[in-house]
């Protein structure tokens, strides 16, 4: 059962480059996640998903900063927090699984020593207790013969096993929130399914809040209760996954769903979205998806000198940044998107 109040609340998050002519990369993003809930961030490459995720614990690349907005973790403000304050949150309160475990893991340390490092320094455990905890976590995430494998190095593991090591490391200090940055992208389908099953099992058993970044809509459908669709640095649609997948209200969401072979109603030819995402350095008017949208007209651009707001409708849980929501909805009614919708 999800908690009444969100563990994490992000309001108006804006991320920009640093310099005399800053470029906005993530624009006015707001989201929240509760204990025991999984939120998916989905969109094309370059949409701002990973930047948004990394900003939550101050892991933005050099030359990029949070220029506006609030990141509230249980009453603690993380936007603009000092390095010391962020270190107190990372690992102990918020764990993170990265996309490529081979580059995230230290190649000259055994995996057991790497997993044990955080409990030693963050929780104050003895070297022996921390190592025993590491072995236990490796066993929990499905690594066979964990005591022996803990003495191995990252290159001695397969991609799927390395990702299990990353999950164990992320959970080493029993965090409240787990951030997942496309953790299954480089894995085969069978291994991906195993990793997703592990994450879901850990979410349930530990009442974890999970924020899951991916471009794979089938993963979102399987794992995420809530979803936020990002395009060109903005959230264009957000709400309950089942509702959005069944009846999208933004043309970009509709295009993504129709492009997903695992989800769509069978048809002779797979749909594709024409064109390319806009250059972040080019200021846009109105809807940023308008140049690629089959529903767009003058109202989408000429009539809106400022970027379109993210409007709530229905129960308030559903949000959409589109002036033609009703037109998109009618299109979905005429031609259902998802199998058995």
Automatic annotation (TrEMBL):
Chief location: membrane
Alphabetical keyword list: ATP-binding, Cell membrane, Membrane, Nucleotide-binding, Transport
Recorded superkingdom: Bacteria
SUPFAM superfamilies: P-loop containing nucleoside triphosphate hydrolases
CC per GO annotation: plasma membrane
Localization, UniProt: Cell membrane
Gene Ontology BP terms: peptide transport
Sequence ranges assigned to domain ABC transporter in this UniProt record: 10-257
GO molecular function: ATP binding; ATP hydrolysis activity
Membrane topology label: Peripheral membrane protein
Keyword Transport: yes
Family recorded in the similarity comment: Belongs to the ABC transporter superfamily.
Protein name: Oligopeptide/dipeptide ABC transporter ATP-binding protein
Organism whose genome encodes this protein: Kribbella solani
Lineage: Bacteria, Bacillati, Actinomycetota, Actinomycetes, Propionibacteriales
């Amino acid at each position: 059962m999800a908690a009444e109040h969100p563990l994490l609340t992000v309001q108006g998050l804006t991320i920009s480059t640093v310099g005399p002519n800053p470029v906005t990369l993530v624009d006015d993003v707001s989201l929240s996640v509760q204990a025991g809930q999984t939120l998916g961030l989905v969109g094309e490459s370059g949409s701002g998903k990973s930047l948004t995720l990394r900003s939550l614990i101050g892991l933005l690349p050099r030359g990029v900063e949070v220029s506006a907005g609030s990141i509230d973790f249980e009453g603690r403000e993380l936007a603009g927090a000092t390095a010391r304050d962020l270190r107190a949150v990372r690992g102990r309160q918020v764990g993170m699984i990265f996309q490529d475990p081979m580059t995230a893991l230290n190649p000259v340390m055994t995996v057991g020593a790497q997993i044990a490092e955080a409990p030693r320094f963050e929780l104050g455990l003895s070297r022996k207790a921390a190592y025993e905890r590491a072995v236990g976590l490796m066993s929990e995430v499905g690594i066979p013969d964990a005591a022996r494998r803990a003495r191995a190095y990252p290159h001695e593991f397969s991609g799927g096993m390395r990702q299990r090591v990353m999950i164990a490391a992320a959970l080493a200090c029993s965090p409240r929130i787990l951030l997942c940055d496309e953790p299954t992208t480089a894995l085969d389908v069978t291994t991906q399914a195993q990793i997703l099953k592990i994450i879901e099992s850990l979410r349930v058993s530990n009442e974890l809040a999970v924020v899951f970044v991916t471009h794979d809509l089938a993963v979102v459908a399987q794992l995420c209760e809530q979803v936020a669709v990002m395009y060109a640095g903005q959230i264009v649609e957000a709400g309950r996954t089942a509702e959005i997948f069944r009846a999208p209200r933004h043309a970009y969401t509709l295009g993504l769903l129709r492009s997903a072979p695992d989800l769509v109603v069978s048809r002779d030819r797979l749909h594709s979205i024409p064109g390319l995402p806009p250059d972040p350095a080019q200021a846009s008017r109105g809807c940023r998806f308008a140049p690629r949208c089959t529903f767009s007209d003058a109202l989408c651009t000429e009539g809106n000198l400022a970027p379109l707001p993210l409007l709530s409708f229905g129960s308030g849980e559903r949000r959409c940044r589109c002036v033609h929501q009703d037109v998109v909805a009618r299109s979905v009614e005429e031609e259902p998107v998802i199998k058995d919708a």
